[in-house]
Each structure stands twice: as structure tokens, then as C-alpha cells.
Amino acid sequence: MITRTSSLFLRTLREDPADAEVPSHRLLVRAGYVRRVAPGGYSWLPLGLRVLRRIEAVVRDEMNAIGAQEIQFPALLPKEPYEATGRWTEYGDSLFRLKDRKGADYLLGPTHEELFTLTVKGEFSSYRDYPVTLYQIQTKYRDEARPRAGILRGREFVMKDSYSFDLDDEGLERSYQAHRAAYTKLFDRLGLEYVVVKATSGAMGGSASEEFLAVAETGEDTYVRSTESGYAANVEAVVTPAPPAQPIEGRPEAQVHHTPNTPTIETLVNFLNAAGLGREFTAADTLKNVMLKTRQPGAKEWELVCVALPGDREVDMKRLEASLEPAEVALLDEADFAKNPFLVKGYIGPKALQDNGVRYLADPRIVPGTAWVTGADKVDHHVVDLLAGRDFTPDGTIEAAEVREGDASPDGQGTLVAARGIEIGHIFQLGRKYADAFELDALGPDSKPIRITMGSYGVGVSRLVGVLAEQNHDDLGIIWPREVSPFDVHIVIAGKDEAVAAGAEKIAAELDAAGIEVILDDRKATPGVKFADAELVGVPTILVVGRGLANGVVEVKDRRTGEREEIAVDAVVEHLVKLVRS
Amino acid sequence: MITRTSSLFLRTLREDPADAEVPSHRLLVRAGYVRRVAPGGYSWLPLGLRVLRRIEAVVRDEMNAIGAQEIQFPALLPKEPYEATGRWTEYGDSLFRLKDRKGADYLLGPTHEELFTLTVKGEFSSYRDYPVTLYQIQTKYRDEARPRAGILRGREFVMKDSYSFDLDDEGLERSYQAHRAAYTKLFDRLGLEYVVVKATSGAMGGSASEEFLAVAETGEDTYVRSTESGYAANVEAVVTPAPPAQPIEGRPEAQVHHTPNTPTIETLVNFLNAAGLGREFTAADTLKNVMLKTRQPGAKEWELVCVALPGDREVDMKRLEASLEPAEVALLDEADFAKNPFLVKGYIGPKALQDNGVRYLADPRIVPGTAWVTGADKVDHHVVDLLAGRDFTPDGTIEAAEVREGDASPDGQGTLVAARGIEIGHIFQLGRKYADAFELDALGPDSKPIRITMGSYGVGVSRLVGVLAEQNHDDLGIIWPREVSPFDVHIVIAGKDEAVAAGAEKIAAELDAAGIEVILDDRKATPGVKFADAELVGVPTILVVGRGLANGVVEVKDRRTGEREEIAVDAVVEHLVKLVRS
Q1: Would you say residue B20 lies in a domain?
Q2: Which of residues 31-50 of A touch B (CB under 8 A)?
Q3: Does residue B11 fall inside a structural domain?
Q4: Under an 8 A CB cutoff, do B76 and A35 touch?
Q5: CB B204 within 8 A of CB B161
Q6: Which end of chain A is less packed: N or C, by CB atoms within 10 Å?
Q7: Domain termination site, one of B470, B487, B505
Q8: CATH number at residue A566
Q9: In this complex, do A132 and B78 lie within 8 Å of one another by their Cβ atoms?
């Protein structure tokens, strides 16, 4: 069916919307793809819905290709399964909660792990039933604190979420790799520029985890990548390379020094360098002991924790929190210090901490044999040459220090640089968290139960509309990749001549008959207005039917390159069919 | 792609679910199409989702064919537009309401009139923009008091809702008729047995209105139809045929009689027939005056209303309420009688009512010249031969009396019989209610604003899955119409022979290559189990590949008729392709 601009529910805007922060938001509103209804809530107008549906079709295609089966859950869900896994409360303010007329508690599904698990448990019982992978393409709800950038971060959005159910870890690994390959194919088909980064698993729990990030300056997610290799990771997931351990034998004894008025790293380093100890100290030689308290979910009591890191590094709270998850983390207040007099502010050292049973977690750089200047647990005193593995032994390592551009890449190749992206996919090995919560077992060949292990895989389907516009636009408007463009060819009637209109209609009818999706600008508007709208709307191929028709030619314009080509009117249908199908 | 039963996420059940009241619910659960998640909330398993999607495709097809344009609104909507139209409160308990993290009020959309109106207002301004028709296929939410019958009446369901926007009444009539024709085509394509009934417009407001009801014994909606003509109507919408007026000249005077102890129709009729008045009286000769009070939306005060109807008819509260909508209706209590001493219980007549300014609404049968026995506004007294149009004149007519089987059909042909159905579509001329609420105007050619008039049209898309199963099943299971069946052909491998399996696979592959959707039962189960599942699942054509294969034949079974036919294996693909495409 030919779409005619004269009757299409589309009005393009000359002005940018006031609330648009990023190009995709600005252009999708201006070109009439979406309209804002509420914070983080958008209507899809005809053009937008066409793009969304085409993306959905590609996602569905790649999911079906790996044998995933499509189902669909309600969005309005009862509280009970989410209470069983603790997520009813863990989700906090991000969960939309409501009551029905009888006062029963419901939620709007943010993700459906509970339902997938319960549904498989309801249908399957034998090991012969497994593996199985299910997915849905569904509307999800999250009460984001700061919905932003139009459909890039909405409160109501479309997601493809799939779950794999396997009998063992090898099976899970196969399912995970199948999804990884499917996502790669999918994002390649959409022509996206993206990186796959190692990720932490967040509130979901689980182990192996990677994110697909679309490269975008305006992206909310920061990641780092190697200057030399393909290594890329979320900052939270960067594993600090540990230096080799050093010998302990024959190293100088630790010595306590009187270091008056040196409660900060800077004052300490200056004091030591002025003290004539025969060597130069830097902040990297000092050991900073950052006091925190943590509380496990459901626990009442806080526990003291000390995070030790080289004095030239700051704590990155996001990395720290990701490392300690699911525990809550807070800084100490005055009352905490008062209750624990062994904590000498500005002069805290590992000795008093470990004597008093405080958990002591060290940055991976603090390997055995490294020597440090640190607090001596006494006002105005520090200890020099405190040797890890001899004078103190951490209770464990922790990834809490900031990652800096120029740090060595964890894979040993090159150094790290920072970049920004938008999360478009996330795959991870969820493991048995939900299977445990709902006792999802298969009866094995020996009649013994086998606890199922799960993988979880998501694609932000509606977000992809925004991401594609973000990666494919210029000053004039959007430039859709062919695979998702709302139409294949945008025909502009440039001229008031009846013959021109008739010629354009004839070409449109022939293209339509050949299965090409055509939008025909048949409005009584100036060619200038029509060209501007065609550039803004972003169909990759623009066909201009104008004065040249009298001489038997029409013009084909490539929206991306701007190249124009005159084509004989008799050959143009074949030319365009070939172009669209290529 | 061939779907294999061995890996399909499908487990059929031998037992009926405990909560299933109607056949469609029972069978859709047993055959593994849907699963219950919450009251009125269902998951779509792979087979169910396939049927739902096929129905959606047919609906979309017929909507596009009449030039309707698809868009999509959020389901989570801000309160404000619904407050502007009063529906935020009018919807009462049926509306799911919730608050976001900032305490702002939201609702889950039950219908989207407000959003459609506001969206058109946002895009369009000139009379040249109109007419336009928009639709969406979307998940809707209503907190039903009694969700029932599985997906027939859920709290989360899929609806197609469309709205037409026209400049004048003629345009609205055209849009209405276009939808009426599209719905007829659509329901015919789905092979549904249905009637189109005249309907009242309910809480929506507006004038012309028809419902499409699928004929079903288990339906919730009662309607009446003529024994002779095509007339059909909702009971609420039946217009009582008025008898011809009768002459007033020369009729006997009204006379008050002392009728002791006759507060009921029965005691009155018995008394009169025993009184020797020279004629026989029946309840139909008496005029029953039913006292009520009504209150307009937003009003504080109640107003007295009297509904007069022949004494042999009861008031049908649903018809009465539909007639008085949007006013609230209640019966009088003792305090009301005490406040209005002119109301003499059991002996109320039109005189005192009209003398005291009570609105007096009469059944359409009470035409001028009809004579009645009714209360004389005095205990133990009635008046005989009170003539309508002479002794009293009602303030208007009202459809409040019950409709009975055997009543004359309003179209003058035959009599009425009652039947039951399930609402599958509703079309009505909404008029300017929402355009008025949001001042939706088009600037006319003379630069004067033209208030837009709207039509509203709905199809219960997910409900249709249930309705189709309700109309298409037998004791063994569902029998899908071809247009919506989850698969075209169900192949059963009946035999353990390797050659049989290989033969079935070969046929499946050839059918698949020909674009036929195949489900192949390749499980290691007995033929009996496979046959029972195939009958239950309800694909219209079953192909049995078994022992006969050695002799070059396979069996094609028609699920609906039960007919079996042996077909040469070389000819079967062509045979089936023809069958499916026919």
C-alpha cells in the first residue's frame, strides 16, 4: 500500500522540542516519530511505530533462529513471586506498585525472571524436557528517577527478554554463546556501531556477564577500552592487573615515625620528603585506609569494613558498591568513630583494624612484598616500610579504586581509554538464583532432582529506535539504515504539472506492486518544504520526480551520501528494486 | 520453520482446570495455549501467541484497508486528561490507579479517547487535515469486579481501538459505515457466527451505536432478535413499538372508586373484577407508577422521577439506568416518602405527581387515548378510565419496562426471542463529547473554528481467541478456522520405524519450503497420545504418516468433519498446499 503524505498522520516541526537533550530525541520528535505523553512515556506515531515494528521483526527473527520460543506474560503482575525472590522490596522506588479493587498488591513488570521460572516449573518436569529458551517482546515499566533523552530512557518501554534453562553449566555456556552470537548478528544487521563490554551483573545476581553498548557520545554508560586490543569493559567490571609479588626476605624493618600534622596524603608526603629519609616518596607509596560500614540485605547490624588502596587513587563508589553487592554501603559518621576509639582519624593503619577484627580488603596492587607508608594508629604517627605479607595480610582484595585513562589494560595489551555508550543488550549467566528461589528442578535419569541453571538476555527494543537515530543522522535529519527505515523509497513530487504527478503515481504504483514500501509526497507544498521533510524523515532513498520527467529522467538521491543520480524513467523501478534489495 | 513437538514449549493437560467455567477456557488451558498468572491475567504460551498474532494481523489488515493509521499510546497514563473528562472518577473501581515515585497520579488505560483527541489536536489544525482515522492494537487494563471465563473477560487484554475524526455529521456517518463494513469483513474472515445488535452507548456518551455479538450460549450479554427478520438488539437498546393513538372524543369519564385493601396490582384487579363494572380487567389495564430519584453527575440534590408503565410489566433496572444515563438512579426510602406526603404508597397516581412538579415519564405504550386504572392519590382509592392525553400528559417517554420473549419486534416483523452472545466489537458515533472537553477544532475555510465530531470503534482482540475456541470445538478439543490456526498442518509420526520418521520429515520439509506452517509430532510417544494431542490442539488438517507409507500412502484427516482420506505420498504436498490455500 502506498502511503501518501497528504493523508498521513504526520506533522514535522521546524523547531526543536524544548526538553530535548540529545540529537535522536530532537529529531524523532521533529520528524513526527514520537510524542511525549508523560515523563518517560511516549506515543508512537505512524512512522515511529513502523520503525519499532521492523526492529521487533529483526529481533524475533534472530531469536527464532537460535530456537528460542516466543511467549508473552502480563505486565500487571501479582506481588507474591516478587516477594519470594525479595525483589518486591529490593527494587525500591523503581518499581511501579498498585493495588486492585480488593486491595491485593500488584506491580508493573520491570523484568520477568520470576514468571519465566515459574512457568517453566509449571510445564516441565523431566531432564528430557531441557534445554529450553523462551523469550518475549513486551512492554516493561520502571519508575526511573530521571527519565531522559526521549525514548532512550523511558519509564514504559519495549524489551526483548529471554531466558535459557539448562541442566548444567556447560549447557548454560552453550545457551549464553548462542545468544551472544545472535545479538552480534542482530546488531550487525541493524548496522549499529557497538562494543561488547565485560559487565557486572547488577541487582540480577549471577556470574558471566557482558553488555552490548552502542557507541554514542551522548551515552549514559561509561566504559573503558584498550588502545591496542579489543578489550572493553564497564568501569565497574575492570579487573585491576596485580603486579608480581616481591621478595620479603632482607627487606627493611617497618619503622614508626613521628609525623606531626600530617592527616592528609599530601601533608604526609611533603613531611617525609623533607625528613631526609634518603629516598623520594609519592602518594603512590602511601596506603590509604578508607573506613566504611556495610549491611547485608535483611540484616539489622552494620559491619565495619576497611578498604585499603594506594594513596594516589580515589575510591570509585560505583566500583566499590558493585564489588560489595548485594550489601548496602555507607560512610562512617561521628557516632561510629566515637564507638570505635581504636580508629584514629587520619592515622588509621592495618594493625589496629586487624587487632579489632575489622574486615580489611585491599586493592589488588597491594601484593605480598609491597612496602607502604600508612597510619600508625596514633595521632601524628605513621609507619614506613610496612610490608604486605609480612607486617599485615589483607582479608581479601577488592575492586574499589578508580580506573584512570592510561592504566594498563587488564589483558596486558595497551592502556585504557574512556568512552561512552548506550546499553542496547545485556547477556549474563544468571545461574541458579531464581531456580533456587522457586525450586526449579528436573527429574534426572536416575530419578534425582537436577537444579536448573538459567541465563538471562535482554535487548532494549524501543531504545534501539533512539540509538539508531543517534548513530544515523546529520544536520538535516535522520538517515535510517535500510533494514529499519519506515519506508524503502520516499518519492517527492517536485512540480505542479499534472504530468509530473501522474508520472510519480505510476512509478509509485509499480514499486508498490514490486513489494517496495513507498511514501509519496503528494502535498500541495513547495519542493523546498518537501525536500526538507524528506531529509528530516530519513528514508535512505529519495526519488525526485520533477521537470526532468519531460525529458524522460528522474533523480535518485542517496540520503546518506547526498549523491544524486539521473535515471531514465523507464529504468527507475528496476534500479530502485535492485537498490532496496541489495 | 518446522515446529517440532519434541522441543516445543507445550504440555497438554488431561484434566480440566478447576476454575474453568466455559469450554474455551477449559480447552485453551488443556491444550497449552494460555496459563493463568493472576485473576484475569494470563500468559500466552507459544501456541496461544501464534493465534493471537494471526488475529491481530487480520484486524490490522482490515483497518489499513479503510485507511486507518496505526499508532500506539502508552498504557501508563497521567491522570490529568482523564480528570478533564471526568472519567478519572466516573470509572470508579474499574480503573487501575497508581502513583509514581514523586507521588503523581497515573492510571492504566482502560480506553484511550482522551489521548486520541489530544494527539489529533496536537498535530492537526486545518479543515484540510481532516478526516483522519487512527487506531492502535494495545494492551488495556480494567479492574473487573468479576474476571471470568479465562481470556473472555480478563483484567489485562488486547484491544484494537480506533477513532475517526470528521468535520461534520455526514463525515462521521461515512466513517461509521466504513468501520461497520470493515468489522463485518473481519469477523467473516475469522469465520465467526455473530449478530449486529443495536446498542446503547454506555458510559461513553454519544448516539448511534451497534455491537457485534458472537453467538454463544455461554455469553454474558443477553440480546433479543426477531423470529422473522434480521432485527437484533441489546435488551437495553430495544425500542418499544408504540401502539397507535386512540380517539379521545366520546370516551367515558374517569371515575374514582373506593377500592379497599388493594395496594398491589393483583389485589386491585381481583377487586375490580369482583365489583361488577361490566368488563374484565387484567394487570395490563392498570398503570403502575414507580417512584425513583435521580441525580445528575456532579449534582448534590436528588430529583424525584416517576416511571409509569403497564401493570403487567416489571421495571428492568438495566434498561431504566441506560435510559437515564449519565444520571444516577435510586429507589425512594422512607425519609423520601415522609418528606413528600402527597405520595400515597400503593395509591400513587399521575395527578398528585404532576400537581407537585414530579417529572412523569411513561412507557411508550401509554399513548394518547389509552385508558388506565391507577392510584387516586388517596388510600384505598383508584381511578378507572383515566385517559392519557386527556386526564394526564406524561413529561416524556422512557424505555424502562422489561422486554419479554414474544413481544412484537420493533421493526414490525415477527416477535422477539432472547439469545446470548459475547461482545466482540462495538462501533458508535461518539459525537463531540471529547472534542468539547479538549476544544478540538479545525480552522475552517472561512477561518472559523469547526468542532470535530468523533466515532469510536473497538474489537476485543485477545477475547477473540476465546470466542473462536468457544464457537469451534468438540468433545476432543479445539477446531481452529484456517485463518487463525497456530499451524496449517499437524503431522503425526505414527510408528517407530525409521523410514516412517524419515518420510514424515521429508514431507514436513517440502511443506515448509512451500510456505506451509507445519507442526511435526516427533515425540517418542504412542500414536494414541499423539492423536489425542492433535485433536486437542485443533490444527484443521492432520497428516498421519504411519504404516501405510510402505505402500506409498499417508492419511489426511479433517479435524472438523473427522473425514480421513488416503493420499499417495508423492501427491500429498501438492494436495495439502491446495487445501491450505483454498
Answers
A1: no
A2: 32, 35, 37-39, 41-46, 49
A3: no
A4: no
A5: no
A6: C
A7: B470
A8: 3.40.50.800
A9: no
- Which regions of chain B are under pLDDT 70? 200-207
Distance CA B538, CA B469 (A): 9
Our CA-based measurement puts residue B27 at a distance from the nearest CA of chain A, in whole angstroms, of: 16
Residues B447 and B383 in one domain: no
Name, in order, each residue with C-beta under 8 angstroms of B490's C-beta and a sequence gap of 6 or more.
Answer: B518, B519, B521, B534, B537, B539, B541, B542, B543
Mean pLDDT of chain B: 92
Same domain, B187 and B274: no
Confidence of residue A207 (pLDDT cuts 50, 70, 90): low
Chain B 59-118, residues with CB within 8 Å of chain A CB atoms: 64, 67, 69-78, 93-94, 96-98, 100-101, 106, 108, 115
DSSP helix/strand/coil, A284: helix
Given a contact cutoff of 8 angstroms between Cβ atoms, the answer to whether B237 and B197 are in contact is yes
Asked if A454 and A496 sit in the same domain, the reply is no
Take residue B526 and report the three cell numbers written for it: 504412542
3-state SS class at A258: strand
Averaged pLDDT, A115-124: 96
Residue B207 has what pLDDT? 57
Is A411 among the domain residues?
no
Total beta-carbon pairs less than 8 A apart between chain A and chain B? 140
Closest approach of B157 to chain A, Cα-based (Å): 9
| Interface predicted TM-score (ipTM) | 0.85
Nearest CB to A37; choose among B1, B108, B115: B115
- Which cell goes with B121? 489536536
The percentage of chain B sitting over the pLDDT mark of 70, rounded to a whole number, equals 99
pLDDT at A184: 97
Residue type, position B93, single letter: D
Contact A44 B72 (CB under 8 A): yes
The amino acid occupying position A4 is: R
Of the partner residues B11, B32, B77, the one whose CB lies closest to the CB of residue A38:
B77
Query: Rounded distance, CA A497 to CA A503, Å?
Result: 10
**Residues B102, B172 share a domain:** yes
Which residue of A64, A77, A97 is in closest CB contact with B38? A77
| CATH number of the CATH domain containing A375 | 3.90.960.10
* Separation between Cα atoms, residue A213 and residue A235, nearest integer Å: 13
Nearest CA in chain A to B116: A43
pLDDT band for A203, please (50, 70, 90 cuts): very low
Query: Would you call A456 helix, strand, or coil by DSSP?
Result: strand
Asked if A42 lies within 8 A of B74 by C-beta distance, the reply is: yes
Chain A neighbors of B122, CB-CB under 8 A = 35
Last residue of a domain, one of A438, A470, A502: A470
Specify if B207 maps to a domain: no
User: Which CATH number does the domain housing residue B81 bear?
Assistant: 3.30.930.10
Q: Which residue of A has its CA nearest to B45?
A: A71
Domain that holds residue A576: 487-581
d(CA B311, CA B565): 64
Taking Cα atoms as reference points, which of B406, B426, B470 lies closest to residue B28? B470
DSSP H or E run through B477: strand B477-478
Domain co-membership, B289 together with B432 = no
Nearest by CB: A76 against B35, B124, B155: B155
Q: Is the CB of residue A20 less than 8 Å away from at least one CB of chain B?
A: no
pLDDT at residue A334 above 50? yes
Residue A145 with chain B: CB contacts under 8 Å: 101
Same domain, B485 and B440: no
Please list, residue by residue across A424-444, b when 16 or more beta carbons sit within 10 angstroms of its beta carbon and e when fewer do: bbbbbbbbbbbbebbebbbee
Q: Kindly identify which residue of chain B lies nearest to residue A79, measuring between CA atoms.
A: B38
* Domain co-membership, B464 together with B521: no
Grid coordinates standing for B1? Answer: 520453520
Specify the pLDDT at position B205. Answer: 41
**Total domains present in chain A:** 3
Residues in chain A within 8 Å Cβ distance of B11: 123-124
On whether both B370 and B466 belong to a single domain, the answer is: no
**Out of A1, A11, A72, whose CB is closest to B43?**
A72
